[in-house]
Amino acid sequence: MSLVAISKVQPNERVDAVLAAGQRLFGENRVQEAQARWTERRAQFQDLQLRLVGPLQSNKALDAVKLFDAIDSLDREKLAAALAEAIQKTGRAPQILVQVNTGEEPQKAGVAPADADALIHAARETYGLPIAGLMCIPPVDEEPAMHFALLAKIAARNGLHELSMGMSDDFETAVRFGATQVRVGSALFGARG
User: Rounded distance, CA 133 to CA 123, Å?
Assistant: First the structure.
């Protein structure tokens, strides 16, 4: 199981302290912020791994493929096409997770659970993407267990093994439901702000 340190909008001194403690797997929300934060650090820490955990616009796919080792937010076919094109151009193939909006919240990114199988199939078969697993962020006002169980069920029927689920407040529950990655920010860095 992997701990993804969510460094988005954290002050650089906190990020450097976590790096100094040995953490090498980080998650960022935005391509441009990640480029500014990690370009120099990547030269210094050869074993650094970066995951894009936030929504990705199709026009940023090339920059994302160049920078990130994994993109955890594939949620539509247009983005699958853009990622496939970026992979062709760069020769880099980051690990890709499909983001599932298990709560079907209109303000959140992610494919609806009912449409997840079709997107996974298209991403693999039509675009040749290396889909490794799924990611979800449950609604804050609901018990996360049912969302984690749903994600695990979708992953199992599609032969996917990576499950990125669970954050600072619910990672223990996520682990019980098979998480292979947990995304921890405030519990690791302290409150943002």
Answer: 12
pLDDT at 193: 55
> Cα 104 vs. chain centroid, distance in angstroms?
18
- Region 13-20: mean pLDDT is 94
CA distance 117 to 114: 7
Alpha-carbon distance of 99 to 141, in angstroms, equals 19
Cβ contact 183:6 at 8 Å: yes
Strand partners, 50: 26
What CA–CA distance (Å, rounded) separates 161 from 178? Answer: 9
SS3 69: coil
Distance CA 170, CA 183 (A): 10
Q: Is the pLDDT of residue 11 over 70?
A: yes
The one-character DSSP state at 60 is G
